[in-house]
């Protein structure tokens, strides 16, 4: 065989093996991509479920019922609500903020 034939065969062998390696790498990446897509869809489904649970658990009616039953809290009446001008939060002697309990 002459040199050109040998070089051509080596060149074809190199191209063929590199093509095979690239194909195998692409197949591995496609499998990984498929797994990632499945994982993303699973996480999105979980996120929707958690959002629905959060919406249910944070409903004002439910929280009010729990506060009344478990903590003994009741809604404030209108006469119990004061604005900041009506509150005496600054002690005139010390010029410090203090909170006074009305219980």
Structural features, described:
The protein is mostly helical and 103 residues long. The chain has one domain. The chain is built from two helices and two strands. The longest helix has 55 residues, at 3-57. The chain starts with a helix and ends in a 6-residue tail after the last strand.
Number of strands: 2
Give the percentage of residues in beta strands: under 5%
In which range does the helix fraction lie? 55-70%
Rounded to the nearest angstrom, the distance between the terminal CA atoms is 107 Å
Placed side by side, the strands forming the largest sheet appear as 1-2
Q: Low-confidence parts lasting 5 or more residues at pLDDT below 50?
A: none
Structural class, from secondary structure content? Answer: mainly alpha
How do the SSEs run, as a string of H and E? HHEE
Rough outline: rod-shaped
Total helical elements: 2
User: Could you describe the largest sheet, including whether it forms a barrel?
Assistant: 2 strands, antiparallel
Radius of gyration: 36 Å
Q: For the residues shown, what is the average pLDDT?
A: 87
Give the total of domains.
1
Describe the protein's topology.
Blueprint: H1 3-57, H2 60-71, E1 90-91, E2 96-97
Antiparallel strand pairs: 1-2
């Amino acid at each position: 065989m002459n040199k050109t034939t040998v070089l051509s065969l080596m060149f074809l062998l190199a191209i063929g093996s590199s093509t095979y390696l690239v194909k195998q790498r692409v197949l591995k990446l496609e499998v990984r991509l498929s797994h990632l897509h499945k994982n993303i869809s699973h996480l999105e489904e979980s996120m929707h479920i958690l959002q629905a649970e959060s919406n249910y658990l944070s409903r004002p009616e439910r929280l009010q019922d729990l506060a009344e039953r478990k903590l003994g809290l009741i809604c404030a009446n209108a006469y119990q609500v004061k604005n900041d001008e009506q509150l005496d939060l600054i002690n005139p002697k010390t010029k410090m903020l203090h909170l006074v309990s009305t219980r």
